[in-house]
User: What shape does this take?
Amino acid sequence: MKKIAVIGVSENIGREVLAYLAEEGFDHRSVFALEAKSAAGNMVSYGEDEELDILGLDRFDFSTIDTAIFTASAEVCKKYIPQVLEKGVKVVDCSGAFFGEPDVPMIIAGMNDEKLVQAKRGLASVPSAGVTQMLLPLKLINEQHVISRIVVSDYTSTSVYGKEGMDELFNQTRKIFMNDTLVDDQQVFHKQIAFNVIPQVGEFIGDETQNEWAFNAETKQILGVQVKVHANCAVVPAFIGCGQYVNVEFSDEVDVEDVRNLMKKVAGVVVFDKHVDGGYVTINDVQGENNIYISRLRQDTSVENGISFWCVADNLRAGVAKNALAVAKLLSA
Assistant: This one.
């Protein structure tokens, strides 16, 4: 990639993409930060020493760049991505705005790269952070065994709701310690989030929440419709990160030690699983980390062919930013 634009830099994921680009050595002069609405003079950090002007999406000349990563809302993506594609720019969509369209493959880099041939318009999407975190460790296992069912309990941080969600957690926590009232202090969440766990991530779609629906639909998009998926999603009082308990059932016999060895071979996955107190990785351990960490790997003896594991990652970085940039590189290759 010669020049790249990141759209949606006022939000957590957009800023994380910029941080990851800086770490990967992209020159600040070849990176452009954009927002749908941006006042003149607004800037965003790029790495430790540089800052980028935040440019307006309406006024930007996309014919000057090669690749764009959209981390903005689905509404913004639906409006602007078709216009950007007309300029011959390769686009990665992180919003799910084009989910299900046959010429917009959903990619986890290193897992289903071959589906990029479907990107006839030069547009690919990436799954939500939790789905990437859950599926990438299963890459080599999926190649050798037939996955029939996945049950995941997903505990995600307030960053899934953007800066506003993180701010609400901070403000409520501060008020509790100051013995202040929390009346009318629930703007993002429908319940108190500080020192609490909320069993809702996104709006309800029938019996499921939006995040639970995404686990089901996106997993089938990547692995195939034959896989049965059941997700239970909750928000925990953490700022960044996501923890998951994952149960996987197979149509054929599997051995947990074989699974362990296969997971260790997947790039971007670290198995840290010691059967002692503290011999596992937690959400607090992975903030700012690029890898997905596996602990508590066990045979699931409640089913005929099953395993279970605990999985944690920085949802902004390992879940989205790292994958989005990797897909962008594949698209522009």
